[in-house]
Amino acid sequence: SQQGEEDPQALSIQEGENATMNCSYKTSINNLQWYRQNSGRGLVHLILIRSNEREKHSGRLRVTLDTSKKSSSLLITASRAADTASYFCATAPFGNEKLTFGTGTRLTIIP
Amino acid sequence: DTAVSQTPKYLVTQMGNDKSIKCEQNLGHDTMYWYKQDSKKFLKIMFSYNNKELIINETVPNRFSPKSPDKAHLNLHINSLELGDSAVYFCASSQVTGVSSYEQYFGPGTRLTVT
User: Fold this and answer.
1) Touching check for B55 and chain A: CB below 8 Å?
2) Residue A23 contacts residue A6 (beta carbons within 8 Å)
3) Do B103 and A45 touch (CB under 8 A)?
4) How high is the pLDDT of residue A18?
């Protein structure tokens, strides 16, 4: 069964606002990753957070991980039109090299 | 200087045909993958090769056969194409150490349409 579930499925916000997406997963993980997919393109890796980390930053991105709740969130601050894309979380279980992707959140930034 | 490239980008073919998709990475990575993304954007791994050796083989019809001539190339051959094979197929690569998955680099995708 699918490992990750993103919430919400779709999100529309005004440019300049912050966008928050959540990911829940089911089994213990080694790390969790977030990817972005622009329409008609391949996925681009954004950030990786390990199971012993609680928060990580990269530019306008902030990722949190709560292993007790088996959940993660991705915050994009000061959104831009170019942030319009689908965002996926992906989990890497312990002892397994296979990444399992979530269902994705479709983010639309309104100029 | 494309990191992961796929050909063709679009593939339209009839049911019953056999087709191949090619993938090449110039990142020096040891591991390559094939994923299938359906119309609902659900991305599912199909195969993974590490240094030309098959390490992940999901429940995929045996009409799908991956081939890795060297660690920079991973091709996907599909026999007897069916309507349900229509999807976008992504190749990816990563430098995997031990059992920890690292970031994966994706190709631009091949949109396969079976009519």
Assistant:
1) yes
2) yes
3) yes
4) 98
The pLDDT confidence band at residue B33, using thresholds 50, 70 and 90, is very high
Contact B41 A86 (CB under 8 A): yes
Nearest to B101 among A41, A97, A103 (CB): A97
The whole-angstrom distance between A51's CA and the closest CA on chain B is 11
C-alpha B27 chain-centroid distance: 16
Distances (CA, A) of B68 to A16, B25, B52: 46, 12, 5
Q: Do B49 and B32 contact (CB within 8 A), yes or no?
A: yes
Pairing of β B110-114 and β A55-58: unpaired
A98 CB-contact burial (10 Å; exposed 0-12 / middle 13-18 / buried 19+): middle
- For residues A101-111, average pLDDT: 94
A14-62 confidence digits (pLDDT tens) = 999 999 999 999 988 889 999 999 999 999 999 999 999 999 999 999 9
